[in-house]
Specification:
Helix content is about 75%, strand content about 0%. With about 140 residues, the chain is mainly alpha-helical. It has one domain (about 5-135). The protein is globular. The mean pLDDT is about 90.
């Protein structure tokens, strides 16, 4: 199946993916947010397929703003759902690829805690997964 993504579609995918990592990092602001962000970003940069190409592209179209985790979540969680809907309509295999990529990033982001993410990170991961599955 062929997939055609507009520039706006690509922005939505990047916002969703990198926003998910940002949410996890923000959920552990008192702990190791920079290590969480690094681990999650490395996981995203390891993606393959169309998603891998979109996430690897050098772009300045990700504009995550907010002074609180709630404000960040208001942008990122709907973007995750929108990304899944978009991909499911065009190519269900790429939707699975995107979902898997985000789940790997969540897993990787928990690694700075020696395999034991904090309760706030666990809850944020649950919300991210819920947004992915809401499509």
């Amino acid at each position: 199946m062929s997939i055609t993504l507009t520039d706006q579609d690509k922005t939505t995918l990047r916002t969703a993916a990198y926003g998910a990592v940002s949410l996890l990092s923000a959920a552990d602001a008192a702990g190791k947010p920079h290590k969480i962000a690094a681990a999650g970003t490395i996981a995203l940069s390891s993606a393959t397929g169309v998603i891998g190409h979109v996430l690897a592209a050098k772009s300045k179209d990700i504009h995550l703003q907010g002074k609180s985790v709630a404000e960040l979540a208001d942008q990122v969680l709907p973007a995750l759902t929108a990304a899944m809907k978009l991909l499911e309509q065009q190519d269900p295999a790429e939707a699975d690829n995107f979902r898997g990529t985000i789940l790997v990033a969540i897993d990787a982001a928990g690694s700075p805690h020696k395999g034991q993410p904090t309760p706030t990170m666990t809850e944020m991961a649950r919300k991210i997964t819920g947004a992915l599955d809401a499509a």
